[in-house]
UniProtKB/TrEMBL annotation:
Enzyme type, top EC level: hydrolase
Lineage: Eukaryota, Fungi, Dikarya, Ascomycota, Pezizomycotina
Protein name: Imidazole glycerol phosphate synthase hisHF
Pathway it works in: Amino-acid biosynthesis; L-histidine biosynthesis; L-histidine from 5-phospho-alpha-D-ribose 1-diphosphate: step 5/9
Main function: IGPS catalyzes the conversion of PRFAR and glutamine to IGP, AICAR and glutamate. The glutaminase domain produces the ammonia necessary for the cyclase domain to produce IGP and AICAR from PRFAR. The ammonia is channeled to the active site of the cyclase domain.
Binding residue positions for L-glutamine: 81
Molecular function, one GO term: lyase activity
GO biological process, one term: L-histidine biosynthetic process
Active site: 81, 189, 191, 242, 401
Assigned protein family: In the C-terminal section; belongs to the HisA/HisF family.
UniProt keyword annotations, A-Z: Amino-acid biosynthesis, Glutamine amidotransferase, Histidine biosynthesis, Hydrolase, Lyase, Multifunctional enzyme
Region (PRFAR binding): 361-362, 399-401, 471-472, 497-498, 520-521
């Protein structure tokens, strides 16, 4: 098998990249010290997390001169995400830390005054001077997850010989990929961009991308006047699999009604809807933009390193090339032999097994309570802070399980209330949403506004917003809840709970500013496919990613 060399400089999630490279027929060899760089013919620099963290690790380990020498020697080089950002001179994310300075310019942060940041989801990488650059296609979408970007100015990079592909988020057009000579760099994650992304990796590995580039140098005159892609970020549709062991000891996908996952009959068996790995693959093939696994019971009767979800992730990430999130049990814990295991160590195991994001539930509620008790002080020791520092904010999702609490008037509670269209059992016109822990078993005196603002301050990158009242009811999302949370924070929100048909997805995207929507039961029961939901949204004029088989 031909080889490609991957630079190993920081703990990051590179498992999916390795899987994608192997899928393209290449073998990965790791470069662990600068002395090894010269033996690499093709070198990939995966970038995870924070610009300063990444560049200072590279610099401290002595990699920067070796990377420069590799590029100067004309050998193939590919940078991904922060690996693209590293090519620039600097970033506002860490102004004191210099980049490789191959491209003069400073990255800045997306404006979050009117849109969620990080920019998470599927967007364009369109190159008007060379539409099929490295296998890119103007009709395909690519998976991005980043808060900092290089703003695109027509002709600026092209005048220095770079071919540039762009995406547009809100009114901001940014550099999605650059290529020149032996160098390709993508802001998006090709390894998480389905078949469209695999095409880019393959064209780098087999050299066809660089060849087509040298045949077609960018000309400023050929840059289309209307560079802004027609549609930009798509509406994300996520399939969620709640996983637990059933009474026979098998790991199954289940689904509750308002979190009760047992059958209604007298035997009260855990509802078994299928096998996790098979179902994840099925949803990927139906066009799901992401897959979320929630381990809804702890598997604490086995050593942490043998957690069954690790194996599920390993197997899923071999065939599913969209982002994978894993939740459940991510907190400091004690292993069966008495060893303390931190939430960061558990997250690391999940990332190494193929997860792209971890989702934290109960532990986030406890951390938020402590944050308020300490007068909104951050100590840097929570799971959210530690994991987001090591892997970047985008890797940390907070999953919330709220329940409605009705009150007759706003003054009846200290919590953030809304006036609801659906009055309570005693005709109450107001409600607030109480956070729960342990899968809804325990309700806390903390509302969703308090929780989401606290975890945003700690460094969470996204909110998975469930709703116990709506879960499994097929009656549509709780639009009031979603609007309240969206009004409170800047990070993206995934609406969850209640989806029963494609119309509910259309409704939540139109009546709220949610960034993504998630369904479970309607997919598991085979009532609708993800593809049907997306077709419906497209018919209604919403932009979705089409699955490329
Ligand atoms: O607290 O960090 O260990 O995390 C536990 C995780 O497990 C949390 O994310 C919590 O939401 C989840 N969880 C715990 N118990 C249950 C349960 O159902 N008994 N599932 C549970 C939560 C909710 C959604 C569901 C949507 C959509 N499931 O993920 O998929 O509500 O369903 P629908 O479209 O069929 O309505 P920790």
């Amino acid at each position: 098998m031909p080889k490609v060399y991957l630079l190993d400089y920081v703990a990051g999630n590179v498992r999916s990249l390795v899987n994608a490279i192997e899928r393209c027929g290449y073998e990965v060899e790791w470069i662990r010290s600068p002395e090894d760089v010269p033996r690499a013919e093709k070198l990939i620099l995966p970038g995870v997390g924070h610009f300063g963290h990444c560049l200072s690790q590279l610099s401290a380990a002595g990699f920067l001169p070796a990377i420069r020498a590799h590029i100067d020697a004309g050998k193939p080089f590919m940078g991904i995400c922060v690996g693209l950002q590293a090519l620039f001179s600097s970033s506002a994310e860490d102004p004191d830390c210099p980049g490789l300075c191959l491209i003069p310019g400073t990255l800045d942060r997306f404006d979050d005054s009117v849109k969620a940041v990080p920019h998470i989801g599927w967007n364009n990488a369109s190159c008007p001077t060379n539409p099929t650059l490295y296998g890119l296609s103007p009709d395909s979408k690519y998976y991005y997850v980043h808060s900092y970007k290089y703003p695109y100015t027509k002709g600026e990079l092209e005048n220095h010989g770079w071919a540039v592909a762009t995406g547009t988020y809100g009114t901001e057009t940014f550099v999605g990929a650059v290529a020149k000579g032996n160098v390709l760099a993508t802001q998006f994650h090709p390894e998480k961009s389905g078949v469209a992304g695999l095409r880019v990796i393959r064209s780098f590995l087999d050299g066809s991308g660089a060849k087509s580039l040298s045949e077609k140098l960018p000309q400023e005159s050929t840059i289309a006047a209307d560079l802004v892609p027609r549609d930009g970020l798509t509406r994300r549709v996520i399939a969620c699999l709640d996983v637990r062991t059933n009474d026979q000891g098998d790991l199954v996908v289940t689904k509750g009604d308002q979190y009760d996952v047992r059958e209604k009959g007298s035997d009260r068996n855990v509802r078994n809807l299928g096998k996790p790995v098979d179902m994840a693959k099925k949803y990927y093939e139906q066009g799901a933009d992401e897959i979320t696994f929630l381990n809804i019971t702890s598997f604490r009767d086995c050593p942490v390193a043998d957690l069954p979800m690790l194996e599920i992730l390993r197997r899923t990430s071999e065939t599913v090339f969209v982002p994978l999130t894993i939740g459940g049990g991510i907190r400091d814990t004690v292993d069966v032999d008495g060893t303390k295991v931190s939430a960061l160590e558990i997250a690391t195991m999940y990332f190494k097994s193929g997860a792209d994001k971890v989702s934290i539930g109960s532990d986030a509620v406890i951390a938020a309570e402590e944050y308020y008790n300490a007068g909104k002080t951050l100590f840097g020791n929570t799971a959210i802070e530690q994991i987001s520092k090591a892997y970047g904010n985008q890797a940390v999702v907070v999953s919330i399980d709220p329940k409605r609490v009705y009150v007759p008037k706003q003054e009846a509670t200290r919590h953030a209330t809304i006036k609801t269209k659906f009055s309570g059992p005693k005709g109450e016109e107001y409600c607030w949403y109480a956070c729960t822990i342990k899968g809804g078993r325990e309700t806390r005196d903390l509302d969703v506004v308090e929780l989401t603002q606290a975890v945003e301050a700690m460094g969470a990158g996204e909110i998975l917003l469930n709703c116990i009242d709506k879960d499994g009811t097929n009656s549509g999302f709780d639009l009031e809840l979603i609007n309240q949370v969206k009004g409170a924070i800047r990070i993206p929100v995934i609406a969850s709970s209640g989806a029963g048909n494609p119309g509910h997805f259309d409704e939540v995207f139109r009546e709220t500013t949610t960034d993504a929507a998630l369904g479970a039961g309607m997919f598991h029961r085979g009532e609708y496919t993800v593809q049907q939901v997306k077709d419906y949204l497209a018919e209604k004029g919403l932009v979705v990613r089409k699955f490329e088989g």
